[in-house]
Specification:
two-stranded antiparallel ribbon, single chain, 4-stranded mixed β-sheet, 8 strands, 2 domains, alpha+beta, 404 residues
């Protein structure tokens, strides 16, 4: 996510804050200054806000660590003015796993609320008035955790309660249908948030707006999953791929990039893939090393790959989750092709066109060309051809055609 500042790592998970969070800090400082125009008042208000968002981090960490127990990693946790977001690399495979991940955050809030209550009771006989918000710092934290836990349990998908609802529905129907139902209810709740927020709280209206967008995105993801049902990576991979060697000069991939649609290049040595050369690394290499620099100096030696029989929807999630354009498809170290987010998008557009026909159709392997479902079984990957006469050159500027 852009405009973020990395705060550090907790349990190996990057914690970052969005730049707009500073606007919330400034707004809280202004509110407390209007109530009591002293530095102490502003300091207390900002400190309490930071403590609340510390609790939000713990809430998101509980999601992330529960997901890790089921083999699901977390890309990062980002703090926004409306709360926190933990980006899982993928969703848990089984409904009961998703249910536990969704409930882990509110459960932690209720545990923290119980701890705050225990602290208040340990101080002596607690009167009902002593438990009310505003009576003490601990009492305020008690009600903050109760509010966070309860609010997140509302069935406003994709909030925690909405995800728990989808997990429950997935136990009795398909995941796609469960997602559509949960997303519809999420939009209803988002509309309620916006209407109530416009009358009482702009922050609640803003939350409703983001919930609506997120519910729409989850619904689109469910449609994508339905379109890819039964398809493997081999059904969408590109087999006609230009490759480069580690010893090639950077001029070679530049020529390929300018003469084709390809932006990222597998780096092969013999018949084995040894790295990937993304467009960003290529451009940075040109700045540092020039066009004569070797590919090996800028290529990524650690990279993710896909197997041809892997589920296409899962691999598409990996492409989107880490903002990758391309993943190599390999078997036993040999390059078979690549799968790109653009090619997956083309497959979805074909699916939408087929569904629009009378009677409706969907993409199946029978409709795909034979080459896309089999790939290549081995042999030397395609090597870059020499630039054609008149092609772009890094050493000689291209001359305009003579005027007539």
């Amino acid at each position: 996510m852009r405009w973020t500042l990395r705060l550090g790592r907790v349990a190996g998970i990057p914690i970052q804050v969005h730049a707009t969070f500073l606007l919330l800090v400034a707004w809280v400082a202004w509110i407390y200054w209007r109530i009591d125009p002293t530095i102490t008042s502003v300091r207390d208000g900002v400190v309490f806000l930071l403590v609340v968002f510390g609790i939000v981090v713990l809430h998101e960490l509980s999601h992330a660590l529960t997901a890790r127990a089921f083999g699901v990693g977390t890309t990062d946790i980002t703090l926004l003015p409306i709360g926190g977001i933990s980006r899982l690399e993928r969703q848990p495979e089984r409904p009961h796993q998703e249910l536990l991940v969704a409930l882990a955050g509110p459960a932690l809030n209720y545990v923290l609320a119980a701890v705050c209550l225990a602290v208040l009771l340990a101080r002596g006989p607690a009167t009902p008035e002593a438990l009310l918000p505003g009576q003490s710092f601990v009492a305020d934290l008690l009600w903050v955790n109760v509010a966070l836990g309860t609010f997140n349990l509302l069935p406003a998908f994709p909030m925690d309660g909405g995800r728990a609802l989808r997990a429950g529905l997935s136990m009795v129907t398909t995941r796609v249908r469960a997602t559509r139902i949960a997303a519809f209810l999420g939009k209803v709740m988002a509309a309620v948030f916006v209407v109530v927020g416009l009358m009482w709280s702009p922050v609640l209206a803003l939350i409703g707006f983001f919930v609506w967008l997120a519910a729409s995105a989850e619904s689109a993801t469910a449609d994508m999953q339905r379109a890819m049902e039964g398809l493997a990576v081999r059904d969408a991979m590109i087999t006609e791929v230009q490759t480069v060697a580690p010893t090639d000069p950077l001029a070679s991939p530049v020529h390929l990039m300018l003469s084709s649609f390809q932006q990222d290049f597998p780096v092969v040595e013999g018949q084995r893939i040894v790295g990937m050369l993304p467009q960003e690394a290529l451009l940075e290499g040109l700045v540092r090393l020039g066009h004569a620099g070797p590919v090996s100096a800028v290529m990524a030696r650690e990279f993710q790959a896909a197997l041809p029989e892997e589920d296409l929807f899962e691999v598409a999630g990996r492409l989107r989750g880490r903002a990758r354009r391309c993943l190599p498809v390999v078997r036993d170290g040999a390059l078979l092709g690549v799968v790109t987010i653009d090619n997956v998008a083309e497959l979805l557009r074909v699916h939408a066109a087929l569904e629009a026909r009378p009677g409706g159709m969907r993409v199946t392997r029978a409709l795909l060309p034979a080459g896309s479902s089999t790939g290549t079984s081995g042999g030397e990957p395609p090597r870059p051809a020499a630039p054609a006469p008149g092609a772009w050159s890094l050493t000689e500027p291209r001359q305009p055609p003579p005027s007539r």
